[in-house]
């Protein structure tokens, strides 16, 4: 009986250490997908600008299914153009955490603008989130 209690205690300690590390890894994976989706949208905005000489109207041309991350399954980030769809010379695209990803408060909302400047709304260093 003592051996069983020791084994249960060891399993409990290992689980207490492993679960937070696993949870953090899952959050980082979701964040990586949102970053990739933001960069892809920024590239699409640049292509739109190349063809139309304006960013105005770009966001309206993006299908609604592409305004979330990931595009299938549960959304963990909502993608948006911060300045609406009227600014002709600039854009800022943001990925706002939603659902279970809200717990990623250290990074918070991820953003990228037309110059490629990347920022966050959280308390961590932007380089750690991007």
TrEMBL record:
Q: Does the keyword Metal-binding apply?
A: no
- Matches recorded under SUPFAM superfamilies: Pili subunits (SSF54523)
Any single biological process term in GO: type IV pilus assembly
Q: What keyword terms does UniProt attach to this protein?
A: Membrane, Transmembrane, Transmembrane helix
Q: Which Pfam families match?
A: ComP_DUS (PF16732)
Does this UniProt record's set of keywords contain Transmembrane helix? yes
Q: Which Gene3D superfamilies match?
A: Glycoprotein, Type 4 Pilin
What are the TM regions of this chain, as residue ranges?
6-22
Protein name in UniProt: Type 4 pilus PilE_2
Species source reads: Lysobacter enzymogenes
Its ancestry begins with: Bacteria, Pseudomonadati, Pseudomonadota, Gammaproteobacteria, Lysobacterales
């Amino acid at each position: 009986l003592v051996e069983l209690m020791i084994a249960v205690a060891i399993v409990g300690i290992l689980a207490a250490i492993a679960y937070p590390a696993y949870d953090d890894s899952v959050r980082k994976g979701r964040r990586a997908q949102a970053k990739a989706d933001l960069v892809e949208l920024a590239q699409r905005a640049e292509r739109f600008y190349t063809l139309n000489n304006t960013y105005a109207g770009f966001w309206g041309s993006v299908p609604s299914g592409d305004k979330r991350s990931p595009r299938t399954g549960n959304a963990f980030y909502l993608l948006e153009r911060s300045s609406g769809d009227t600014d002709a010379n600039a854009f800022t695209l943001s990925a706002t955490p939603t659902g279970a990803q809200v717990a990623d408060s250290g990074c918070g909302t991820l953003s990228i603008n037309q110059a490629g400047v990347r920022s966050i709304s959280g308390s961590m260093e932007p380089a750690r989130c991007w």
